[in-house]
Amino acid sequence: MRINHEQLTAFATAIFASAGTEEVRARKVAHHLVMANLKGHDSHGVGMIPAYVGNIKNGNLNIAADAAVLRDQGAVMLFDGQFGFGQLVGSQATELAIARARETGVVCAGVRNCHHLGRIGSYGEQCGEAGLVSIHFVNVVGHAPLVSPFGGRERRMTTNPFCCTVPRADDIPIVLDMATSAVAQGKVRVAHMKGEQVPAGSLIDHQGQPTTDPGVMFNEPLGALGPFGMHKGYGMAVMCELLGGALAGEWTAQPDNERGVQIVNHMFMVIFDPAAFGGLDRFNSEVTAMVDYLHSTEPALGVDKVRIPGEPEREALAERSAAGIDIDDNSWAGLLKAAAAAGMDDAAISAAAGGA
Ligand code: NAD
């Protein structure tokens, strides 16, 4: 089915509010999730709501928590998300780090113990829209690992996302925002449910051999997701684990730490003002000239044009804002079930879902 983003935001807000979340907070979380759908990342959109409602119910998600300052030492800041909605505690910590970066020129900030932060690009955009450069290393803990190290055949990490944002004087920021696994776990689940194969190079079986069968992620003997870009992507995943996890979160995926049904992100960010380096005019003109140069590349056969990071999201936003968001039947059924679990009755569900 296809649904308008405002209607979907209202429905998602109603679900979180019914689960006890203050309305204004519920709306912010809903907005973040629907923006992920609008920007083309359905794996991090409203399809996460059933897991969030489950974690509210089992006490793994604290709906009232805000980011608490644990350490405040000039250019070094550390926050505790206290297992609150990542969308709230992540953006609160980023906002405070942005304010500090304006004073100090640069900030290294950690935010630990966030329930799922969602689309990391949203925090990059927050920095970029403030005219600042940002780099984000994130790990994922609280449940069993999914991703194998390069050359391995067992799972050791999760999809550890990395993000880097460069602001532009006269356009939206350039945002590289990516999982360090070859493909998102959400996309593997969808392929499995549809009986489809995943792209070659995404998965390995239990012997470490490449496979396109998504069933290896769900049926014994289990395989694993591979890192993107072979040893290089694996290396980035390790850095996300060590900086996001060991440094900011003090909680990596190693097995002495807790593994249950939580979805916990720890994020390490470096945020800085390009003006602090002096040549802001030159920086801006070089960024513009380089982007123009990249755009001028003759496209490969079968490709319409060369893009820069962040442009696919901009295109998806324009297209989906106008045409609506496609939600597959399973995800919609999951949302209706989550709404009921959150405490909405049939009449409220059908009113909030707009009879969709
Ligand atoms: P992706 O592969 O769709 O895109 C990755 C990056 O490549 C984006 O910056 C995109 O703009 C860019 N890109 C894509 N196609 C391009 C092209 N043709 N030309 C130029 N640039 C292009 O993203 P992904 O790796 O599937 O990640 C999806 C989302 O999942 C991200 O928002 C990420 O933050 C999120 N994520 C979150 C967690 C978490 O634990 N919170 C974990 C993993 C991923």
Q: What are the main properties of this structure?
A:
single chain; alpha+beta; Ribosomal Protein S8, Chain: A, domain 1; binds nicotinamide-adenine-dinucleotide
Reconstruct the topology from this structure.
Elements lengths: L1 E2 L1 H14 L4 H16 L10 H9 L10 E6 L2 E5 L5 H19 L1 E10 L5 H9 L3 E9 L19 E6 L7 E6 L5 H10 L8 E2 L5 E2 L12 E2 L4 H20 L14 E9 L7 H16 L15 H13 L1 E2 L2 H13 L4 H7 L4
Parallel strand pairs: 3-4
Antiparallel strand pairs: 1-12, 2-3, 4-11, 5-6, 5-11, 6-7, 8-9, 8-10
Helix pairs in contact: 1-2, 1-10, 3-10, 4-5
The structure holds nicotinamide-adenine-dinucleotide (NAD).
Summarize the structure.
With 356 residues, the protein is of the alpha+beta class. The chain is built from eleven helices and twelve strands. The structure holds nicotinamide-adenine-dinucleotide (NAD).
